[in-house]
Amino acid sequence: MRFILRVIVVALALWLTTFIVAGVSVVPWEQTTVATVLTYLLVAAIFGIVNAIVGGFIRIVAFPVYVITLGLISFIVNGLLLLLVAWISTQIGFGLQVESFWWGVLGALVLGLISWLIGLIVRPSKG
After folding, report:
1. DSSP letter at 28?
2. What is the pLDDT of residues 39-87, one digit of tens each?
3. What is the pTM of this model?
4. Is 110 within 8 Å of 17 (Cβ atoms)?
5. Where in the chain does DSSP place strands (E)?
6. Rounded mean pLDDT of the chain?
7. Contact 100/74 with Cβ under 8 angstroms?
8. How many angstroms separate the CA atoms of 82 and 106, rounded?
C-alpha cells in the first residue's frame, strides 16, 4: 500500500514538474487521458525502482564523495537517475523525455521538492 501511495505521489509530482521545467516532458503511448495517466504512473514506478536499486547502490558506494561535497553531489546523482529513467522509458516506447543533463538535474531538484511537499500532505498517520 505504501509503494502504491508513493508511486501516485511521484506521478503527481512528475506531472507538476513537466509544467515547471521546460526540458522535462512525458510522452504517452496514445493521446488519451487514460494512457496519459497510466504513463505517468508507469514512469513513477520505474523511477521508484531505479531510485531504490541503482540510487541506493550509488549512495552506498559514493558515500565518501557525499561527505566531501557535503551532499551536493546528490544533485548530480539525482539528475543522472532521472536521465536513466528517461532512457529506460523511451526504450519501452513511451515515457519521460529529458532534453539534457542540466535539465535532468533541474528536473530532479523540482521533482524532489514537489514530491516532498505532496508527501507532507498525504503522509499516512502512524498508529
Report:
1. -
2. 999 999 999 999 999 988 998 999 999 999 998 999 999 999 999 999 9
3. 0.88
4. yes
5. 24-27, 95-98
6. 91
7. no
8. 10
Residues 6+ apart with CB under 8 A from 108: 75, 78, 79, 81, 82
Cell 494512457, residue?
Answer: 35
Q: Which helix (H) or strand (E) holds 7?
A: helix 2-20
Residue from 47, 19, 44, 21 nearest 107 by CA: 21
Rounded (to 5) percent helix, strand, coil in the chain: 75, 5, 20
**b/e map 95-124, b = 16+ CB within 10 Å:** bbbbeeeebbbbbbbbbbebbeebeeeeee
